[in-house]
Amino acid sequence: MATTVSRILFHLGFDMTDRRNLFNKVWDLHSVRTISSGQTQLFIGLHLIHEVTSPQAFSILRDRNLTVMFPDRTLATVDHIVPTDNQLRPFADGLAEEMMSAIEKNCRDFGIRLFDLKDNRQGVVHIVGPEQGLTQPGMTIACGDSHTSTHGAFGSIAFGIGTSQVADVLATQTLALSRPKVRRIEVTGKLRPGVFAKDVILHIIRKLGVQGGVGYAYEYAGEVFDRMSMEERMTVCNMSIEGGARCGYINPDQTTVDYIRGRPFAPTAAEFDRAAAWWLSLASPPDAEFDDRVTFDGSEIEPTVTWGINPEQSVGVTEKLPALSSFSIDDQKGINDAFAYMDLHENQPIQGVKIDVAFIGSCTNGRISDLREAAAIARGRKVSPGVKALVVPGSQLVRQQAMAEGLDKVFEAAGFEWREAGCSMCLAMNPDKLKGREVCASSSNRNFKGRQGSPTGRTLLMSPAMVAAAAINGCVSDVRTMLQG
Amino acid sequence: MLQITEVTGTGIPLLIDDIDTDRIIPARFLRCVTFDGLGEHAFEDDRQQDRSHPFDDPRYKGASVLIGGRNFGCGSSREHAPQALMRWGIKAVIAESFAEIFFGNCTTLGVPCVCAARADLEQLTNLVKADPSLSITVDLASKQVRAGNLAVPVTILESARMALTTGKWDFLGQLLEGADAVRKAATALPYLSGFKA
Lengths: 485, 197
Ligand code: SF4
Hints:
The complex is a heterodimer. By secondary structure, chain A is α/β, with parallel strands linked by helices. Chain A is 34% helix and 16% strand. A 5-stranded parallel β-sheet of chain A has the order 5-4-3-6-7, sandwiched between helices. In chain A, strands 17-16-15-18-19 form a 5-stranded parallel β-sheet. A 4-stranded parallel β-sheet of chain A has the order 11-10-9-12. Chain A is globular. By secondary structure, chain B is α/β, with parallel strands linked by helices. Chain B has 8 helices and 7 strands. In chain B, a hairpin with a 4-residue loop joins β5 and β6 (144-147). Chain B starts with 5 loop residues before the first strand and ends in a 10-residue tail after the last helix. The chains are: A alpha/beta, B alpha/beta. Residues 79-80, 124-126, 145, 147, 362-363, 423, 426-427, 444-445 of chain A line the site of iron/sulfur cluster (SF4).
């Protein structure tokens, strides 16, 4: 076996003494040429589009009389504006309906495959790609959405782009980019029970800051990530952007290969074996070179909750909010603003902060394992009176799977609303929105002012199990006290 | 395309850290199929909550040089954010630092984003507040910002500076020129050739 693998790799041009990290190998492989600004013209292996950031890109193509160069390399789905209760067309919201019609027409006109609402493969774009086996190691992946970093979980270079760049990819299958540096973030040891992938990434962002990753791609490595399932890895990579890094990735391993095998767009038979050998060969070698390295001890991570207005403002669930004096003078004004907006104060315990809404879903935590973790907490319990609790599966297939397992019944019996797939309350582009000053315990990724639809609404980010615990107790609670066995 | 070597105009101060794209243009305004009309909604929710917001302050009407803080434009990749600023009238942004996607989006639109030291941003802010009619020049050739007697150094990613000053910020045009090389590069990718040698 080993010799077959090395023979295949040799033929593919791979050198086993190569000390490049995965990022640089994949980048080099996709470099087409250098353009006059000094940037690389980089080939994009998979392009994902959705209804919000694509219409203006197609207008650019029409204005310049261009076609799509590799229509097979783009996949479209709808997620952001999709209502998660009544999905009958035309939508009540005329603007949303106009956007739906636009993506349908654009995909027809330019020959792009679209998973629309009638297709059971529809869902949040970053859930759909991996689920269908489109997302594969060693690819470059771009989408007009910053959480494209999710796909890095497979050992791909995946990042968000603006609408002008969506047009660039459609017309040329390439982008003009500068190569970032690579930071290896190692998390050692073992996570304690009740601590999830979401807590790991919130902890990393808390420690490195929301700006810490600017100019870097993050490689997540070490025992904690080695042990994670692909779904957990996606949660981590998803929030790389919240840490300022444009992309984050985890080296492909057997877990990656096993996940992809048998998915609709995965290679099959002998081709799969060749693919798997190549994927595994891309992993950063033990002596790989990095521009920076940091290490965390996984056993020190607690269930983590944000208290402020950016994802770095978080604490462990048993901690108190930080004292103002613990921040530099320059930062104190911003921290005070955050306290004032959230109506929280320094040295206050995070546990017990009252919530009005609980949201389980999004491309961060809307996969089947997330729903299972939340259902385990909800089972046999009741949502606190006065709390509006929503469960929104990330895709139609996740929804079907959850229903096959009876999770919908568990949630409904506990008083959660069970919805159709979409972005829902992760952002405010569809009917699911906070009202007024409501506080939402949310499994999504951003706690920015106004993010969940009310300009004065408040968001506390946490893991799906922690959201379920908050829904049941009506306030931020330590999920570890509610775990079975 | 137009060579952008400098931008001159009056300033608008917004020296706040971590201004995210949801604040620059709240998500409900993304329900659109063109970028037209986004300008008037720039900072809509912040303005509603703070009637003295600089974007509502008549003294800064017509300003084209925005002065920001640290990590400006963080959050989403939505090009709607720089589009909204540009359509409001912003032609250049000076800040302590920028989120990367926002920075790239601005460059593609021909809106230079330059970084300055905190103390210099504070000085600029004070000057602009004292005299909103003060003319500010963002000079990409000398990598300087000048206002009245003040001249401070700024930095900008060299590739973006090159693109703007040589008029090559229309990346699509350049990428199209490489079409043959792109087709050739594609044939070398294992996943486009059945993972064969
Ligand atoms: S779920 Fe949220 S973060 Fe993910 S794509 Fe949708 S809106 Fe963006």
